[in-house]
Design goal:
By secondary structure, the chain is α+β, with helices and mostly antiparallel strands. The protein folds into 3 domains: 88 residues, Rossmann fold, CATH 3.40.50; 66 residues, 2-Layer Sandwich (Dna Ligase, domain 1); 198 residues, D-amino Acid Aminotransferase, Chain A, domain 1 (2-Layer Sandwich), CATH 3.30.470.20. The protein is built from 13 helices and 20 strands. The structure holds adenosine-5'-triphosphate, glycinamide ribonucleotide and magnesium ion. Homodimer.
Length: 396
């Protein structure tokens, strides 16, 4: 990365969900030009970007045609399911891929990043094995033991993931995982179930020309593999936090490049277990929209563009909670927003996703409190006040 950089830059965002939308807003506040790309029209980031493209990001030809057309300076992946071999080619042609094309390749599938962290770097993870057929799944499950967690190697937000309590449940887990697999892989990972006390995301900012820095840890609560609440700061002993930071530094150094990473850990009574990482802003990191002087999207942008990050300030106990859809609809509306926002220090993001399906994340509440418990209570209370309705029903 060159030492002196001029603004604006042309950024191509591959994936245009809620995280991309906030990133685009951060990029545009510094006058940059953003082309938002996703598989469907009017995705959240497209609503605030300069231009947009609707393609299959797993198609090398479609990626080639939009890169030819827009000639971006940077390609910034926002989801995993991208034809990463093509990103390697773009990088060789001089486009900066964030954090690097190889890093996106490693983190696209759970097996590659697991091999890097565990086999190559010797980092502690849950015991694991792989399966590509039901027979293999039965065999590997017996080896790992019960309960275990079955996940497609390519999926996110808990899609296709389930906890398997006993051998009779394996077939159901197989079916669920194959159906929930994103992209073109049918491989599954089976992990030992870790009975953790707390799980955290350590937002780790890798810079081109400055040392790696960390945000205070974010605690989170997940249900069925998907995030429901997050809060900052999370209480972790100094010793375990240093261990987590050392692991995050080791993995992100191995991946290289620059940008923010969401490094996920399970914290048990006396140990830290690496789970996985996103080479991009993390959903649980949306709490930083209220909890820090620079949120995770602004930090990502600064790291990408080699802009300084002189200080990360935590602004006090804060929390986020998700608003999930309960229906299939392409005309959803929200009611109860007035009530939700009537509390001091409560804020809201409604992502503007054009369609809903049961369980799809449509928004997030943000809150500050005198302590984390109060912040969490305020965020979840705000969620309970917001109801998703059909536009037509409401207008009728
Ligand atoms: N081995 C495990 N033991 C215990 N809980 C687990 C295990 N693996 C996953 N989980 C639970 O499921 C959640 C989601 O798992 P994971 O992060 O691997 O999935 P994901 O689909 O990549 O999620 P995201 O994309 O939101 O990060 C974890 O945060 C944790 O709560
Ligand atoms: N855990 C990863 C994550 O939260 N990713 C975020 O969700 C969007 C997809 O949402 P959708 O499935 O509702 O389209 C992605 O584009 C990204 O913003
Ligand atoms: Mg995760």
């Amino acid at each position: 990365m060159k030492k002196s950089l001029k603004l604006p830059q042309k950024l191509m965002l591959l994936g245009s969900g809620e995280l991309g939308k906030e990133f685009t807003i951060a990029a545009q506040r510094l006058g940059n030009y953003v082309i938002a790309v996703d598989r469907y029209h009017n995705a959240p980031a497209m609503q605030v970007a300069d231009e947009s493209e609707v393609i299959s990001m797993l198609s090398p030809d479609q990626l080639e045609s939009i890169v030819q057309k827009h000639q971006p300076n940077f390609i910034i992946p926002e989801i995993e399911a991208i034809r990463t071999e093509k990103l390697i080619e773009f990088e060789q042609r001089g486009i900066i891929v964030i954090p690097t094309a190889t890093a996106t390749h490693y983190t696209m599938n759970r097996d590659r990043i697991r091999e890097l962290a565990h086999q190559k770097l010797g980092i502690r993870t849950a015991k694991y094995g792989y399966a590509t057929t039901l027979e293999e799944l039965i065999e590997v499950s017996e080896k790992i033991g019960f309960p275990n967690v079955v996940k497609p190697v390519m999926s996110s937000s808990g899609k296709g993931q389930s906890v398997v309590e006993s051998p009779e449940k394996i077939q159901t887990a197989w079916k669920y995982a194959v159906e929930g697999s994103r992209g073109d892989s049918q491989k599954l990972i089976v992990e030992e179930f870790i009975p953790f006390e707390l799980e955290i995301t350590l937002l780790t900012i890798k810079q081109w020309n400055a040392p790696t820095i960390f945000c205070p840890p974010i605690g989170h609560l997940q249900e069925r593999g998907d995030y429901r609440e997050s809060w900052q700061p999370a209480v972790v002993s100094e010793e375990l936090l240093q261990e987590a930071q050392a692991i995050a530094q080791k993995v992100t150094d191995a991946l290289g490049g620059a940008g923010i990473f969401g490094v996920e850990f399970f914290i048990t009574k006396d140990s830290v277990i690496f789970s996985e990482l996103s080479p991009r802003p993390h959903d649980t990191g949306m709490v930083t929209l209220i909890s820090q002087n620079l949120n995770e999207f602004e930090l990502h942008l600064r790291a990408v563009l080699d802009l300084p990050i002189p200080k990360i300030e935590q602004l006090g106990a804060s929390a986020s909670a998700v608003i999930l859809a309960n229906r299939n609809s392409n005309s959803i509306a929200f009611v109860g927003v007035q009530d939700a926002l009537s509390e001091p220090d409560v804020d809201l993001r409604l992502f503007g996703k054009p369609n809903s399906r049961p369980g799809r994340r449509m928004g997030v509440t943000l809150a500050k409190g005198r302590n984390v418990q109060e912040a969490r209570d305020k965020a979840t209370t705000a969620v309970s006040k917001i109801k998703i309705v059909d536009q037509e029903d409401f207008d009728a």
